[in-house]
Every structure is written in C-alpha cells, then in structure tokens.
Amino acid sequence: MELVNNLDGRLLFAVPKKGRLYESALSLLQGSDIQFHRHNRLDIALCHNLPIALVFLGAADIPTFVGEGRCDLGITGQDQVAETRTAVEEVLTLGFGKCKLQVQVPARGPMKEPKELIGKQVVTSFTHLSREYFRQLEVEAFGAEAVEKNGMKTIMKYVGGSVEAACALGVADGIVDLVESGETMKAAGLAAISTVMETQAVLIRSKTPRNPKLAETIISRINGVITAKRYVLCTYNIPRTLLPRVHEITPGKRAPTITQLEEENWVAVSAMVERKEIADVMDKLEECGAQDILVVQISNSRAGRPITP
Ligand SMILES: Nc1ncnc2c1ncn2[C@@H]1O[C@H](COP(=O)(O)OP(=O)(O)OP(=O)(O)O)[C@@H](O)[C@H]1O
Ligand SMILES: O=P(O)(O)OC[C@H]1O[C@H](OP(=O)(O)OP(=O)(O)O)[C@H](O)[C@@H]1O
Ligand SMILES: [Mg+2]
C-alpha cells in the first residue's frame, strides 16, 4: 500500500518478472544506472537514484500495460507486441530474446506444409498471430469471399505454456510456438514447417508517457548500453597510402578517426566494429598491411543528439 502511494510522478517502467528476457533486461537496467531494490515478492520496486518505479510483469502482459498508458516504458518481445495488437511505439530493438515463432507438426507425420493444417486443430499461446497466419493460407486456398462468408476452418486453441506437449497428448494436429535452439521442438518429436515471425526483445514506449523527458533519457541510456555491447573499438597503425583500402574494411559507425603518428607517412586509425565481425575484420586488416591491431571493449556509449542544421 505504501509503495503504491509513492508512485506519484514516477515514470513507470514495465520489466519481465521472470523467464527468458529477465536476466538480460536486468543487465540493461544495471548498465543504465537504474538502481533499485526489489523486496521479496513485491512486483513494484522504486529506484533510489531516479524518479522511476519498476513494475515486474509477465512479458505477455507488458504491451497491454504500456499500450493503455498504465506504464510508460516496457521491455518485452516483438512477438508479444504483435500478438497484443496494441498501440505502442517500438523504440529500440535490444539484441536478445531472439527466436522464431514457427508452425510445428509431428516430425514423423505426413505433413510438410502449413496449408495441410487447414481445417485441423492448432494449439498456441499466440492465437491472434496464428489466426491471422492461417486466415491468409485459407484465403489463398479458397478465396477471400469464401473465408469471409463461411468463417475460418482452422481451429485455434490457447494454452499458456508447454505448448509442445499438445501434439503428443493428442490435443493438437500442429502447434505454433517459439523456437530458438530447436531443442524443445526436437525433444517433443516435432519439426518446423514454416515461420510466422522472427522476434527479439524490444523497448516499447507509451504514446502518452508521464514524463517524456525522463523517458527520452532512459531510452538514450539503454541505447548506449546496447551499442556498447554490440560494438568494439578497433585501432591499428597503417601507412597513409593504404588508407583508402582499409577504409572499406573499417568504415566505423560514422567515420574512422585518423591520427597522424610521429613516424612520417604513418597514421593510427580507430573505428567501431560490430563485435560479431571483429575476427574477420582483423584478418582483412592484417592482409592489407595494418600493424599493431588492438581491440578495445566499450563499457558504455552515447550516440549524441541528432544535429539540427
Ligand atoms: N527460447 C527462447 N529463446 C529466446 N527468446 C525466447 C525464448 N522463449 C521465449 N522467448 C522470448 O521471451 C518472451 C517471453 O517468453 P518467456 O517464455 O520468458 O515468458 P513466459 O512464458 O511468461 O515465462 P516462463 O516460460 O518462465 O513461464 C517471448 O515472448 C519471446 O519474445
Ligand atoms: O528452441 P529452444 O531453445 O528449445 O526454446 C524454445 C522454448 O523456449 C520457450 O519455452 P520456455 O522454456 O519459456 O517454457 P514455456 O513453454 O513453459 O514458456 C518456448 O515456448 C519454447 O518452448
Ligand atoms: Mg515461456
């Protein structure tokens, strides 16, 4: 009760309370210096150093809370935003929680294409997205008019979790569920036959945030943290004459920084490079004649405000 009275004027930030997005979401908050203490079992935590309250909710409920303006910012999956069909702004993709929403059928069964599930029973936690997907298949098979007139033939059934068990239990002919490594699908004897959508975690904002300036600051901080995770700083020395060749290898985010060395005709280059490409970039730089190639971790970053002419 006391906590709820303390929410006045605070920016409300919805964060997954458990599950696949929880750890990475907390690490983003930590990187953004959003300090809080979550009391045992309480789903609201006040920040010590900012006028923010964190609201811990199920990932599936976060788009609704933000869409209705009850929370100002939220972290959830793009799949949940699409499923909820609520009006929120997806302000930043966060680079974690990457997976695919896929149509799956028994691996040993005869079905090879999703249209073979038309008229059958499909179990999913994503009934809206699945219905839209199968409606499209039915329109392709029977024409829009027939689907409009007779209604859909494919039956969607909602379950909240452990969707993969549905086929084995005889509740479903096929399912629509998330796949990352494919381990769960394989263990359940299922195979994917098509992809409904690809998804990752996103930062969402209400269309009417209580404190737009603070919301903007938090978005900028989170953007800085994810950019720092995504990039490393690569520095090396190279004869000035070779600059045009290496420019293509390390164009940087905006442009590389070139510094004249004390040694004549030599320059030092530093440029941001996507972490996942760095080994390949170093090979290419070495081949071109770059020397003393160093890779430096970026612990935080800020892109800066757009320059208005
Ligand atoms: N295996 C996965 N790999 C990557 N991201 C995933 C995976 N499963 C789910 N996600 C992402 O995380 C979001 C929340 O799913 P999650 O399973 O964590 O929620 P939950 O079902 O409410 O929690 P729990 O599974 O603990 O009951 C999904 O909407 C999706 O965006
Ligand atoms: O391809 P994989 O790497 O195996 O991941 C996919 C599984 O992860 C999620 O389930 P979760 O573990 O959250 O359990 P749940 O079904 O109870 O939500 C999802 O619903 C799949 O079942
Ligand atoms: Mg889950």
From TrEMBL:
Pfam families: HisG, HisG_C. The gene is HIS1. One of its GO terms (biological process) is L-histidine biosynthetic process. InterPro entries: ATP-PRT_HisG_long (IPR020621), ATP_PRibTrfase_cat (IPR013820), ATP_PRibTrfase_CS (IPR018198), ATP_PRibTrfase_HisG (IPR001348), HisG_C (IPR013115), N-reg_PII-like_a/b (IPR011322), N-reg_PII/ATP_PRibTrfase_C (IPR015867). This is ATP phosphoribosyltransferase. GO terms for cellular component: cytoplasm. Belongs to the ATP phosphoribosyltransferase family. The lineage of its organism: Eukaryota, Fungi, Dikarya, Ascomycota, Pezizomycotina. Residues 59-223 form the ATP phosphoribosyltransferase catalytic domain. Residues 228-300 form the Histidine biosynthesis HisG C-terminal domain. Pathway: Amino-acid biosynthesis; L-histidine biosynthesis; L-histidine from 5-phospho-alpha-D-ribose 1-diphosphate: step 1/9.
